[in-house]
Write a structure and sequence with these properties.
Blueprint lengths: L14 H7 L4 H9 L3 H23 L2 H18 L9 H20 L28 H14 L2 H11 L5 H8 L3 H22 L5
Helix pairs in contact: 2-3, 3-4, 3-5, 4-5, 5-8, 6-9, 7-9, 8-9
Length: about 210
Amino acid sequence: MTTACSRTEWPAASPRRAAAAEALSDDVLIRRIANADQRAMRMLFARHRIAIYRWLVRLVGDEGLAEDLLSEVFFDVWRKARSFEGRSSVSTWLLAIARHKALSARRRTQVERAIELDDELAWTMADPADNPELVLEKKDREKLLRRSLARLSPEHGEVIDLTYYHGKTIKEIAEIVGINEATVKSRTFYARKRLAQLVSAAAPASH
C-alpha cells in the first residue's frame, strides 16, 4: 500500500468525501478495502480510530505505544480485508485485532498477571446497590469510574471497558477476548463487584 500512515492518522479525506462516507456501511468499506480502495481505507480509519486508540491505551497504558499499535491494526486491516467473513461486526473485528496487538506488546515488556476464575459460576444480575454510578455525584462520575477502572486487573478491566464504553454484548466480548461466554459472564460479575468497591472507596463521603 502506498498511502502513508503517520502514527495515529491516515491521510484525511476531504469534507465532501467525509460526508459521503456516512452513507457507506462498515461492511461495504471492508469489501472495497479488499479491492485495494484507499478511499475506503481512509473512511474506515476516520470512523473507528478514536475508539480503537482509546481501547489500546486502556490495554497497554502507554499513549505512544497505543499510537504505534493503532497504525499496525489498520495496516493489518488493509492486508487482511479479504479474510473478513462478516461473522461479527467490523468494530468487533477491529477490537479483536487491536487486543491481539496489545497483548503481544505487553508480553514483550512484562509478565502478564494470571487470574483463575470459576467458569462454572452461574450468571446473576448484580444488585443495584453495587452499581457504582449510584454512589457518585454526576460531576465526578466519569472521573472516578475511569480512575477505578484503571485499578482493575487487565482481565476484569477489559470486559467492563468493552461493555460500558464500546457497547459490546457478552457474545461479542467472548469473540474479542477469545474466551467462552460463561467466562465472560463470570469475569463481568466479579469485575462489577470489584469496581463497585473501588468507586465506593474513592467517592467523597456524604455529609
